[in-house]
Amino acid sequence: MHYDCLIIDDEKMLADSTAEYFNLFGVSTAVVYSAGQCRAFYRENSASLLLLDINLGDGSGFALCKELREKTEVPILFVSARTSDDDKIVALHIGGDDYIQKPYSLGVLLAKVKVVLNRFGKLESEPGGKSDSKYVDNRLTVDFNMRQVLVEGESVKLTSLEFRLLSYLIRNENRVISKQELFEEVWEDKFTGDGTLNVHIRRLREAIEREPGRPEYIITVWGDGYRFSGQRE
């Protein structure tokens, strides 16, 4: 069976009340309370989005995220009472798409989940700019229709959000794009934080740049935003 959302959280009352609220407003939601139950869920079911707690009774949400990223690119939103910036950076660096701190407002969380489901439910509608189906240079190939990235002929695995961000930068090649524009056009959420964007930019650089610390493609324009510098001959 397919669900819009799967909640993986060992706080049973909170997880159950969140799922009940989501289902009430038309977001079909299942709940599991451990990493083991999550694995069992995926043997017979699927979900379009995951809400994943860091602290699980039988393991770490971080470890489970890395395991899940081997077989799915669906958005993973971490939910946790932990407030450390290091936790947030790790969560995003290992493949999480966002980090939501507990306690959360059910209404705000539902709104965010609906935005993400809407965003990733429209694979054909990558955000604006040039309409070419591919970007190709001597090192990097990005096929927008196939949602595939090759670096020196080797396939590079990106999350859905990372691919969407890279696509937007490339489709607006050589134009300086403000952080606010990226929040609104890629995340479709003007309240996304700088820290979240910075981590995703860093992950993209690690994926496609020769030297991530000295990027050739994704250039920081201090005080303004970012620019994709095309390397086509």
What would you say this structure looks like, in words?
- The chain has 233 residues and is an alpha/beta fold.
- It folds into two domains: 2-123, Rossmann fold; 134-228, Orthogonal Bundle (Arc Repressor Mutant, subunit A).
- It contains eight helices and 13 strands.
- The protein has helices at residues 12-24, 35-44, 61-69, 85-93, 106-120, 160-171, 179-187, 194-208, and strands at 2-8, 29-32, 46-53, 55-56, 59-60, 76-80, 98-101, 134-136, 140-143, 148-151, 154-156, 218-221, 225-228.
- Strand 12 (218-221) and strand 13 form a beta hairpin.
- The termini are far apart.
- Residues 4-117 form the Response regulatory domain.
- InterPro entries: CheY-like_superfamily, OmpR/PhoB-type_DNA-bd, Sig_transdc_resp-reg_receiver, WalR-like, WH-like_DNA-bd_sf.
- One of its GO terms (biological process) is regulation of DNA-templated transcription.
- Residues 131-230 bind DNA.
